Amino acid sequence: MIQFEKVAKTYQSGKQEIHALNGIDLTVETGEIYGVIGFSGAGKSSLIRTVNLLERPTSGRVLIHGKDISTLSSKEIRETRKDIGMIFQHFNLLNSKTVYHNVAMPLILANTPKNKIKEQVKDLLDFVGLADQAEKYPDQLSGGQKQRIGIARALATNPSVLLCDEATSALDPQTTQSILELLRRINREYNITILLITHEMGVIREICDKVAVLEAGKVIEQGSVFEVFTNPKQPTTQRFVRSVMNDDLPESLLNQIQDPNRSHTIYRVQFTGPSVGQPLMSRVSREFNLDLNVLFGNITELQGSPYGNLIVEFSGKPAEIEQALKAIRSDTVKVEEVKNYAS
Amino acid sequence: MLVDNEQILEALWETVYMTGASFLFSLIIGFPLGILLVVTRKGHLLANEPVSKVLNIIINIFRSVPFIILMVAIIPLTRLIVGTSIGTAAAIVPLVFYAGPYIARLIENSLLEVDKGVIEAAQAMGATPGQIIFRFLIPEALSSLVLALTIAIVGLIGASAMAGAIGGGGLGDLAITYGYQRFDTLVMVITVAILVILVQGVQSLGNVLSKRVRRS
């Protein structure tokens, strides 16, 4: 478990003080994948570095498994760091060493016997799918392969926590997918708690359980990925959500439906869980004698359960529309009128 | 020609000996200093402003004194260390004072080229400062270090030629005494040619070695 308690970090830049972190309160539960998202300069990278004390908070505490790490001696800090793996945007591998040596490095530092290192590195390389690349050098590998080496290296000391510092930001979309899958496997198979920072909402949607949105060194919104994606409150969060769940209606379509002679209302219908599989719209159309025009539709998966988002134009008698909406609304179906759908 | 082959060979040996010995001692002094210059920098492994400042000032002082003056200036010290201020062994002392700080700077430069991310990764895996220096910084900079030290050796070959001024012997001495003061052009041409070949050889060797240690 990682707890941030009123964590603040201030840099001195000339005479100016820069507040990178401004009182962060966050709790990452054991076994969770927690994502912190923010634009560049929001303080993400300072935040993640306070966990293994690559950066020391100016005030506040960071507790790892209940222990305040800033009170530890440098030797104890080094021991704690072995329990916290870290991977980086630019991989930070040793270019002068082979893949094998890179992965073995944390074990060499810990004076592990040679035959044991050999065994462990082989297992690690197997796990990340690069067993046949052991004798290569990092510059002979692709970005995705380098990140796999970084992951293998981070896992070498059997950490309970893995920090991911923009781990997929330098990778193409396909490679990003495969790295995210690997991270999820690590989380599930080894029950390793993962804290990741990113500026890509897709990464959050793909693997995170919880998310915090960081802006100007403050957490402006946090919650389960499901909550935040289906009901983002802050403008910044809404922008992030829209970046992956774009439901803006095309302008040409808006021109067509904005006919003053047309009596209609537009609603956003959000389905969750089992309701996604139901033919709800056609049933409502039949029962209440309404014309339904689906302007936008999308189904994605959030935290392993389906989530549907429809924007529907209801045409018919207002009373019947009212009735229909009543019938649709339930625990798993949310309906709201879309007023300013022109973005 | 006023000199025979034997004299030329002896002078060559003296040059090699002076360069080699002074390089060795300079390295012993310059290498740790170079590391210290890097790690005591602001924001680095063992950041320490006073140490860093003092070190920089001292090194800059030595680096700003022309070698020919340095040679004369430290004669008392030379006498204290080798018992005499004349001869090949005596020339090694000022050469070390000249090349030690120079090597420290070269090493500082090479080590600074190492990506900061690598140091961060090392810290994140719980490495001690010593481990970071010897298992991360130096191996990553090795190829560049070899080239830097090649520059130092070439510099020392040139400086050792000047040591002839205090009777240090070597090819430089030969060139001055016979080639310049006694107008023996052939001696001048031969000694300069040997120096050129020597420098070319050292540089080529450095290049090859640097390529080879890039991956170890």
From TrEMBL, chain B:
Q: How does it sit in the membrane?
A: Multi-pass membrane protein
Residue ranges of the TM segments: 20-39, 51-74, 80-100, 145-166, 186-209
Q: Where is the signal peptide?
A: none
Keywords tagged on the record: Cell membrane, Membrane, Transmembrane, Transmembrane helix, Transport
List GO terms (cellular component aspect): plasma membrane
Q: Does the UniProt entry include the keyword tRNA-binding?
A: no
- Where is the protein localized? Cell membrane
Offer one example of a GO biological process linked to this entry: D-methionine transmembrane transport
Fetch the InterPro entries from UniProt: AA_ABC_Transporter_Permease, MetI-like, MetI-like_sf
Q: Name one Pfam family in it.
A: BPD_transp_1
Family recorded in the similarity comment: Belongs to the binding-protein-dependent transport system permease family. CysTW subfamily.
UniProt cross-references to NCBIfam families, sorted A to Z: PRK10782.1
Q: What is this protein called?
A: ABC transporter permease
Identify the species of origin.
Planococcus glaciei
